[in-house]
Write a structure and sequence with these properties.
Blueprint lengths: L5 H9 L7 E2 L8 H23 L26 H18 L2 E6 L6 H9 L2 H5 L7 H10 L27 H9 L5 E8 L6 H6 L13 E8 L15 H10 L3 E6 L3 H29 L8 E6 L9 E2 L2 E2 L18 H13 L2 H4 L8 H4 L43 E3 L2 H13 L4 E5 L17 E2 L14 E2 L4 E3 L3 H13 L3 E7 L7 H14 L11 E6 L17 H6 L6 E4 L4 H13 L4 E5 L4 E3 L4 H10 L1 E3 L13 E6 L1 H17 L5 E6 L17 H8 L5 E5 L4 H7 L8 E4 L10 H7 L4 H11 L1 H6 L1 H21 L4 H4 L6
Parallel strand pairs: 2-3, 3-4, 4-6, 5-6, 10-13, 10-14, 11-12, 14-15, 15-17, 16-17, 20-21, 20-22, 22-23
Antiparallel strand pairs: 1-5, 7-8, 9-18, 19-21
Helix pairs in contact: 2-3, 2-4, 2-6, 3-4, 3-10, 7-15, 18-19, 20-24, 24-26
Length: about 800
């Protein structure tokens, strides 16, 4: 018979979630009476969690449990719920003892029963939802609604009082928590990290948030890594590495980890109470030291590692299979109770073991002696105003954007960098809002020409300084620009900042904004859900500047060319998504001002940072942006008659190439009539029945006609325009040109040629689409093709575009 070496047995025992508590911090701070009440409060939470998963009726088991009391479809996650409520109960004790301002974020949001239960017990849920009253009938409705049609989802959804983090998609809890703590000096954000969640890329990099929290001006994040050992059907990595390795990992990230491990309730309550209190006092010490001395260095912030069994308190086995402490406890732990009498008996015994008759009075109300353990009013984590950010949001003070525009004599003749004046505007936005506005980005603020911001506030940096950092490093311990080469972490920080009532701005290279595709998805879903929740107050919009765009990534090449984020945005609800493609400085400023004033949207602004032609005076830009789409009279010559062709554009480079094509055509065909349309608000192309910004069919037809060819030169992938406009009357005559995955280290014009958005391709397109030009345009097409070939050859010989093409200006 094989044997296990003693040292291996010892290692396994050290990783066990069972037995009396093993903890870094020792002590028994709870009196026998406090311990009794704390354990009872936790039992009440666990009872509610089981009720939410299983019960349709008979909420307090006042009669024998029968199949008709069980929901027809059992949904929910038991596995992490007991651990979440265990943490919640102990945080409540600290809130009451020290009058703390604290919110709770559940990274494993699928354990929502462990958060909803405390919210109900402390009374917030019934205040927000009066039909879920604190009595027998209200408790039945509270149970019934969970994971039930017409009810609420199984995560910490927006319907959950106190939640700013759903935890449906894992990985963002620490970055959200950090954003919430910014500029909230008295706030502590308790952020529970699931051990499965800790395996995700976004969570792994977000351990670095401690490098961005100022003990002088910010609140604190208290991470609680919950090791319950299993995911859906697998062990978790951090629960199976040695204690020393895990502690070294967390210390290496700069945290001070305190361990609480075990399963025996009384000793675990004492250990957790001592540990949470130690961490709270340590946080306050770090903050008091920084605030007394006005000296900002990075503390080694405390965190907790809680190791407890998966599905804690569940039956050890069911039908010969391990349940508590194993992956089978992850979701519905006993799945066939409605149809299996033995399983129903096991569930009934389990629920009775929580002794609900001790916890609730004859009317179904939580007993007053246990209720007193919870904070009251806004100190309840489920009622904290920070977790309903619109309640504490202050309007952003904005300078007059007119003052930052550019002036020129006539359109299409002057070049300027589009985003640089935006940086000056944002500098003054920052100056006027030094405690509720921040700028975020992955190492690209200077690259994206927004560096004027540094005149008012530098990049936050609390690590070591080298002497050479003084030479353009733009680093400061009180900076309000956040940069880290993790789009996930920056986006999460911004979301947390917005969800707690503040304002921000995020800029990113276009190709790599895809890294936050799913984060955008989750935030858009949150905003859409909040629209139908009456008590959720409006928050500032999430503003994304997408720059370093595809058409000016000729120097970085193919890997940096991807305009497809717009396709992702269009997938989300029309109620919360907006896309703008300003072609020049003045339009960009007008759009940015509008977006910064807006609420409850994700605003995506696409504008390149390089030098581009300027087209609109400030007054004209404001009018054009207000409409979102319009005919450029100065670029059209069809007024008073029908056009031969409609030339439409969206995006800076496509607009310039289409204008150049218009000139080529007018020089070759003196009688051609061209209508030139520019689109800033992309959703104008959708019908008004599909998007609130969409044009009516009458408005669309008056611009695009019902029967003339339309050549649409688009910034992104061409099929997106077809998708938006497929129901329009003239869609069959719409021919879209855009990026087609043809790229390399090209010159700007060669990249345009490769993807057929260049002036020559567009001009030849028009000849092919206008019937009368098909017969007479052969020679012109030949000249355009020859010029195109000459431009490509010139680029391959000299490494740049022909000066007369690169420096093209509008001649009329």
């Amino acid at each position: 018979m094989s044997t296990v070496a003693p040292e291996i047995v010892s290692d396994i025992a050290a990783l066990s979630a069972y037995g009396p508590a093993r903890s870094t911090v020792t002590g028994t701070p709870l009196s026998p009476e406090e311990l009794r009440k704390t354990e009872a409060y936790w039992r009440a939470c666990n009872y509610l969690s089981l009720g939410m998963i299983y019960l349709l009726d008979n909420p307090l088991l006042t009669e024998p449990l029968r199949p008709e009391h069980i929901k027809n479809r059992l949904l929910g996650h038991w596995g992490s719920s007991p651990g979440l409520s265990f943490i919640y109960v102990h945080l409540n004790r600290m809130i009451k003892k020290y009058d703390l301002d604290m919110i709770f974020l559940a990274g494993p949001g699928h354990g929502a029963p462990g958060v909803l239960g405390p919210a109900y017990l402390e009374g917030t849920y019934s205040e927000v939802y009066p039909d879920k009253s604190e009595d027998f009938d209200g408790l039945r409705e509270f149970f019934r609604q969970f994971s039930f049609p017409g009810g609420i989802g199984s995560h910490c959804t927006p319907e959950t009082p106190g939640s700013i983090h759903e935890g449906g998609e894992l990985g963002y809890v620490l970055s959200h928590a950090c954003g919430a703590a910014f500029d909230n000096p008295e706030l502590i954000v308790a952020a529970v990290v699931g051990d499965g969640e800790s395996e995700t890329g976004p969570l792994a990099t977000s351990w670095q948030i401690n490098k961005f929290l100022s003990p002088e001006r910010d609140g604190a994040v208290l991470p609680i890594l919950h090791l319950n050992g299993y995911k859906i059907n697998n062990p978790t990595l951090p629960a199976r590495i040695s204690h020393q390795e895990l502690e070294s990992l967390l210390r290496g990230y700069g945290w001070m980890p305190y361990f609480v491990e075990g399963s025996e309730p009384d000793s675990m309550h004492q250990a957790m109470a001592a540990t949470v209190e130690h961490c709270v006092l340590e946080i306050r010490q770090h903050q008091q030291k920084a605030r007394a001395n006005s000296t900002v260095t990075r503390p080694r912030w405390p965190m907790i590692v809680l190791r407890s069994p998966k599905g804690w308190t569940a039956p050890k086995e069911v039908e010969g299979h391990r349940l508590e402490g194993f992956w089978r406890a992850h979701q519905v732990p006993i799945p066939n109770v409605k149809h299996d009498p033995e399983q129903l008996r096991i569930l009934e015994d389990w629920m009775h073991s929580q002794r609900p008759e001790e916890l609730f009075d004859g009317q179904g109300r939580f007993s007053a002696e246990f209720r007193e353990l919870a904070p009251t009013g806004n100190r309840r984590m489920s009622a904290n105003p920070h977790a309903n950010g619109g309640r504490v949001k202050r309007a952003l003070r904005l300078p007059d954007f007119h003052q930052y525009g550019t002036a020129f004599e006539k359109p299409g003749t002057t070049q300027a960098e589009n985003t640089r004046p935006l940086g000056v505007f944002l500098r003054d936005v920052m100056k006027m809002n030094m405690d509720n506005f921040r700028v975020f980005g992955p190492d690209e603020t200077t690259s994206n020409k927004l560096d004027a911001i540094y005149e008012v506030s530098k990049k936050f940096w609390i690590e070591e300084f080298f002497p050479e950092d003084q030479d353009g490093g733009e680093l400061s311990t009180d900076g309000r620009v956040l940069e880290m080469l993790s789009e996930h972490t920056m986006e999460g920080m911004l979301e947390g900042y917005l969800l707690t009532g503040r304002h921000g701005f995020f800029s990113c290279y276009e190709a790599f904004v895809h890294i936050i595709d799913s984060m955008f998805n989750q935030h858009a879903k949150w905003l859409e859900t909040c629209r139908r929740i009456s008590w959720r107050e409006s928050i500032a919009s999430l503003n994304l500047l997408i720059t370093s765009t595809v058409w000016r990534q000729d120097h970085n090449g193919f890997t940096h060319q991807d305009p497809g984020f717009l396709d992702v945005v269009v997938n989300k609800s029309a109620n919360v998504t907006r896309i703008y493609l300003p072609p020049d400085i003045n339009c960009l400023l007008s759009v940015a001002d509008h977006c910064l004033r807006s609420q409850n949207y994700v605003n995506v602004i696409v504008c390149d940072k390089q030098a581009h032609l300027q087209y609109m005076t400030m007054d004209a830009a404001i009018t054009h942006c207000t409409k979102g789409i319009g005919i450029w009279d100065w670029a059209s010559n069809d007024e008073g008659g029908e056009p031969d062709v409609v030339m439409a554009t969206a995006g800076d480079v496509p607009t310039m190439e289409a204008l150049a094509a218009t000139v080529l055509l007018r020089e070759q065909f003196r009688d051609i009539k061209i209508r030139f349309i520019n689109v800033i608000d992309l959703f104008k192309l959708q019908p008004s029945t599909e998007h609130p910004h969409g044009l009516s069919d009458w408005e669309f037809d008056s611009l695009f006609t019902t029967d003339k060819p339309v050549i649409f030169n688009f910034h992104g992938y061409p099929w997106l325009i077809h998708r938006l406009a497929y129901r329009r009357h003239n869609h069959d005559n719409m021919h879209v040109r855009g990026y087609k995955e043809k790229g390399s280290i090209d010159t700007p014009l060669e990249l345009a040629i490769n993807n057929n958005i260049d002036r020559f391709s567009l001009a030849m397109d028009v000849i092919d689409r206008v019937p009368r030009l098909q017969k007479i345009g052969g020679h012109a097409k030949e000249r355009f093709l020859n010029e195109q070939i000459e431009c490509r050859n010139y680029a391959h010989q000299y490494g740049i575009d022909k000066p007369e093409e690169a420096g093209w200006t509008w001649p009329y």
